[in-house]
Amino acid sequence: MDLRPVGTSRPRDRLAVGIPLGLIAARLQGTWLDPLIISALLFFQAIPALVVIPPLLWLFAVKFNLLPVGGWDGIFSIWWIGGVIAIPIPDPHLYLPLFVFTVPGLAGVARLMRITALEVQREDYIRTARAKGLPESQISFNHVLPNSLLPIVTVVGFALAGIIEGSFFVETLLGIPGIGRLLFQAVGSRDYDIILATTVIFATVFVVMNLLVEIAYAFIDPRVRVGQSR
After folding, report:
1. For residues 150 and 14, which has the higher predicted lDDT (pLDDT)?
2. In the Cβ-directed half-sphere of 119, how many Cα atoms lie within 13 Å?
3. Do the Cβ atoms of 23 and 111 come closer than 8 Å?
4. Domains in the chain, start-ordered, CATH in brackets?
5. Residue 130 contacts residue 139 (beta carbons within 8 Å)
6. What is the pLDDT of residue 4?
7. Residue 187 scores a pLDDT above 80
8. Quick one: which of 55, 88, 157, 201 has the most CB atoms within 10 Å?
9. pTM (two decimals)
């Protein structure tokens, strides 16, 4: 049985989409687009996976036959050109769990990024940059974004720990042999050895990720290194 956790791109996708959305929402504060972006993300976050998965399976797997109903064949499939050139492409089994895992988490990252960016935009050096005539895009990416990443790094640490934990709801409904489904089956069959082993694994991963987050603080924010040297 393949017990590799699914959704290994989940934190990266949340950050790649959530951070720009948070910056855009902060930049558009006071306009109708700001609440529209956050409200749309909160709407998707409020829908549980148990409600989202069945209509998605009916639409894409049964109605249009575009995606497989369930199972797991890995993250990539190999597409051969002329039997010589191998090109890795995302496996069709990846799309549904990736969508269910990623979309609900976008709201948390975007809202946190928006709040932090709004606080940074009130700083004196941001007003100085605007007084110099720098374009807003340069201010956002060169000044606002780097100084807003500390809270996001904490979110990344928890998200990376959540990769190992998996999701027994998604894995059970989609027939994915992940560690979350294994834990769910162990609880149902009262297999205490597996329950204790997975608990130790989850706790260890959580501690290690928090340690890595603390180390990452020193690389992201120079003020942390200065404080440690003092």
Report:
1. 150
2. 11
3. no
4. 10-229 (1.10.3720)
5. yes
6. 44
7. yes
8. 157
9. 0.70
